[in-house]
From TrEMBL:
It holds the Pfam family Thioredoxin_4. InterPro entries: Thioredoxin-like_fold, Thioredoxin-like_sf, Thioredoxin_domain. PANTHER family: GLUTATHIONE S-TRANSFERASE KAPPA, THIOREDOXIN-LIKE REDUCTASE RV2466C. SUPFAM superfamilies: Thioredoxin-like. Residues 24-222 form the Thioredoxin domain. Gene3D superfamilies: Glutaredoxin. This is Thiol-disulfide oxidoreductase D.
Length: 223
């Protein structure tokens, strides 16, 4: 389980300097760190209601499960390649569970991955997320920042996004800042300290085997 680092955003902000995105000057050009300035964002008014919740399942499902996960977290990748697929088949697709996915940002790479996953809107979000998690061991180890963002771009293109669309999403500094604030609000509300973490009908639970997830969900359904 990956543990959150206290003050990570403030530390990155101090180390990185001025917030913003650099202009793209070619296919390998890289946006500057979108976590820059996160410390200042806590003092600024940012409308996080503009961030779309990524949801699967029936709106009126009797059980709501929120996952907090990072695209750079290996345990999250394992969950999405294993227990999540069974959860989706048995509970989400059958209308028993409303599943909400919320991103956690450890670093700029996870935030870039999130911006690409969200670039195609809710219709493509979970499909792109699946590709990002499936290829995590490759893109997360692609090299430096330029190589990593290029690898993430390729995932977006594979998912059917257009090059110009991807560039616009990666350069959206206001969206990056809003996502960081949105994550901080959610993590504070639910006391999120590690990933993946889950909120099952309002109660925080840790990552566990599918059998244990199933028992907890069934107890909620029978309650």
């Amino acid at each position: 389980m990956t543990r959150l680092m206290s003050g990570i955003f403030a530390s990155l902000a101090v180390a990185a300097g001025v917030y913003g995105y650099a202009s793209f000057q070619g296919s390998s050009a890289l946006p500057s760190n979108p976590l820059i300035g996160a410390a200042h964002a806590q003092e600024a008014e940012v409308d996080t209601s503009t961030i779309i919740e990524m949801v699967q399942g029936a709106e009126g499902a009797p059980v709501t499960l929120i996952e907090y996960a990072s695209y750079t977290c290996p345990h999250c990748a394992n969950f999405h390649q294993g227990a999540y697929k069974q959860l989706k088949e048995d509970y989400i697709d059958t209308g028993k569970v409303k599943f909400i996915y919320r991103e956690v940002y450890f670093d700029r790479y996870g935030l870039w991955a999130s911006m690409i996953a969200r670039c195609g809107g809710p219709e493509k979000f979970f499909g792109i997320s699946d590709l990002i998690y499936k290829g995590q061991s490759d893109w997360a180890r692609a090299g430096g920042a330029t190589e990593i963002v290029d690898a993430l771009r390729k995932i977006g293109l594979l998912a059917g996004l257009e090059e110009e669309q991807l560039e616009a999403c990666l350069q959206d500094g206001a969206k990056a800042q809003t996502l960081v604030n949105w994550y901080q609000e959610n993590a504070t509300e639910h006391g999120i300290e590690s990933t993946p973490s889950f909120i099952l009908n309002g109660k925080k639970i840790s990552n566990q085997s599918y059998a244990d997830f199933k028992a907890l969900i069934d107890a909620e359904l029978d309650g």
